[in-house]
Amino acid sequence: MTDRGLRRSGARWAAGLAAGAVCVAGLGLALPPAAPLAAAEDLPLAPPESVGMSAERLQRVDDYFQRFIDDGRIAGAVTLVARRGQVVHHSAVGWRHREAEVPMTTDAIFTLMSMTKPIVSAALMMLFEEGRFRLDDPISDWIPEYADHMVLERDGPRWRRVAEARPVTIRHVLTHTSGLTLNPDNAGLSEEERRHVTNDGEPFATIGERVARAAGIPGAFHPGDEWQYGSSTDNVAVLVEKISGQPIDVFLKERIFEPLGMHDTFYNVPREKVDRVAAVYRPTGDGKSELMRAPAFREPTTYFPGVAGLNGTSADYFRFAQMIANGGELDGVRLLGRMTVDLMISNHTGAKDVYVRGPGYGFGLGFGVLVDPTQSFDALSPGSYGWGGAYGTLYWADPVEDLVGLMFIQLPGHGPLNIRQRFTNVVTQAVVDSWADQRPRILGYDIPR
What we know:
Blueprint: H1 3-19, H2 55-70, E1 76-83, E2 86-97, E3 102-103, E4 110-111, H3 116-128, E5 150-155, E6 158-163, H4 170-175, H5 191-197, H6 207-213, H7 232-244, H8 248-260, E7 280-283, E8 289-293, E9 311-312, H9 314-325, E10 329-330, E11 333-334, H10 338-344, E12 361-363, E13 368-370, E14 385-388, E15 394-398, E16 403-408, H11 419-428, E17 441-442, E18 445-446
Antiparallel strand pairs: 1-2, 1-16, 2-3, 4-9, 5-6, 7-8, 10-11, 12-13, 13-14, 14-15, 15-16, 17-18
Helix pairs in contact: 3-7
């Protein structure tokens, strides 16, 4: 075997040993780890064939990512596949920190970036279920700075500020149709206004302070007119804080993470868990990747955005994903009602271009929703939903096939690799059961008898 082959085999073996990796791609299950791994030991495991998937075909998932690793395009990856609530594949390949020769492990902690958004959106919808608001209530009921918000409107060759045609509502910020931003660039602000909305260049202590100041930035369009990916979920986080009376990090911990057993998900990674953090890489001009940020302890912050900021493991995120897939419940813990979840994973944006997720997608309340698979890059069923993060993480669920897929890498600017789009194809090809013994479903729902 070559040195390269030895390193590759050694990384896989060490990853499994160090993390007690559960790779259920064979006919049997791996032996339990010698020591528990936070949420990982709670994963419901099953042989792939027991839920209509092929163990042999699931091996293609590891092979797929290993090619990117061997080419130097990514350092490592963790992947998880579940069907009918059972995990049939959970694997780590490559390096958690390539330069230090630390193998990737299934309990690695990743920077989730925008995969924070579905969790924060679910938090607000928990308050919706308590009757605290209607979706079409103005956000100014809780963030009064937006009561007289302005938008930019073209006036011939110039732009002018005008009053909003309608107020920004909670539905608008959940669906990214608000037009709101925290970025003052190209907004036509005076120098005094810019200093105000940016805190004169000094960091904001809390997301609430920054969102309130950002009310001075005119919207990019009238609320509801367009879909624009950006800062809307920061407003969602502030609404959770205002309505619940708790900081968003406390609300998430007490109302979502602790009830679901998500013990490795945080805004501030504890010092004792830094040795499980995955290094972040960036693309180089020659198609390879280089170290951008090594794992290190970072002083705790009080700035907890809604658009990004959470860190977590694949096992933890699976528990959130399966809760949504189950209609709001997991292991006897119900966070949301089934009808609320149905509302969240329905398309609320019509034919607007959800350009971040690609053609064929609409957007629900915190989730991209696949409306037309014939236009999509993904081999998923109508009604599939999920979201990804800028550093390469991705989560999706196919309610027709009762299938959940997660991939975790750490590489901003990964778009040219098409690595996330092809991941869905590599997973869904492992579904091999027959339709002959299954009741038909439409958009994930059973046909009533």
